[in-house]
Amino acid sequence: MRRRLRTLVAAFCALPLVLAIAPSAHAADPTTMTNGFYVDPDSSAKRWVAANPGDGRAPAIDASIAGTPMARWFGSWSGAIGTATGAYAGAADSKDKLPLLVAYNIYNRDYCGGHSAGGAASPSAYATWIAQFAGGIGGRPAVVVLEPDSLGDYGCMTQAQIAERQSMLTGALTQFNRQAPNTWVYLDAGNPGWAAPATMAQRLHDAGLRQAHGFSLNVSNYFSTAENTAYGNAVNSELSARYGYTKPFVVDTSRNGNGSNGQWCNPSGRRIGTPSRLGGGAEMLLWIKTPGESDGNCGVGAGSSAGQFLPEVAYKMIYGY
């Protein structure tokens, strides 16, 4: 507790400098309030290992995937969302660890792709849900990735639908700023293969990026860390030129060890990447998507549903074949 108080005092004293570099409503740094990242004790990989102790693949999956700090995703399946995020952030806080959470419930989610379609029943339902999400975390330290794919998924949307989505994201960021002062929120920015840096910079800005701590890249995708770093820097160059500010970014490295082969939905021959840590060309490298969880009914995951844990896919991803 004393370490956290010292951290908050130091962050408060440095606030004008932080705001000058990257405007944000947050003063606290959750990475210095905790001692490393939290390992989800109930991840899909952990559950599979526990249920299959005699499987020959279990030791490798346990050692290389289940024991690695990863994000937990929250959506309509999470029940009372404030209770769910509060319990997860509280469990991490009790161990002095930093939890990674993904908010994935925006209205008209995956509207164009369809593999992960769903989300809240209406914009107002989403506003209530995300407010409770933030409120559950409260003052505990946390990292949140906000609505993967939401800004890349514009191809089949009308301008009215785009404006509606931007408003939902801006409202979400407002809620985190009000209710979760020790949470770093990263507004998702897709991946290097989705939108040009100038396009993504505009989408981020229009969705309220100034209110966020930063943006996230490569969530559930396979592009190399180097490609994502170059893309993130290019987005920041556009943000600086157009709007006069830049933001930190994080990269999902969970499945990018072999880079991308151009496919996004359960491609073969991919490999796990650098485990969650600070730095690496980005502010943080994070495992946001669990290796072995399906992208949908496609590729080497044919016959599966999005989010389903596939042990054979996980096992092959450890070795890259």
From TrEMBL:
UniProt-listed PROSITE patterns: GLYCOSYL_HYDROL_F6_2
Signal peptide limits: 1-27
Enzyme class per UniProt: hydrolase
Pfam families (alphabetical): Glyco_hydro_6
InterPro entries assigned to the protein according to its UniProt record, in alphabetical order: Beta_cellobiohydrolase (IPR016288), Beta_cellobiohydrolase_sf (IPR036434), Glyco_hydro_6_CS (IPR001524)
EC number: 3.2.1.-
Active site location: D149 (proton donor)
Keywords: Carbohydrate metabolism, Cellulose degradation, Disulfide bond, Glycosidase, Hydrolase, Polysaccharide degradation, Signal
Family: Belongs to the glycosyl hydrolase family 6.
Protein name (Swiss-Prot/TrEMBL): Glucanase
Organism encoding this protein: Streptomyces cinerochromogenes
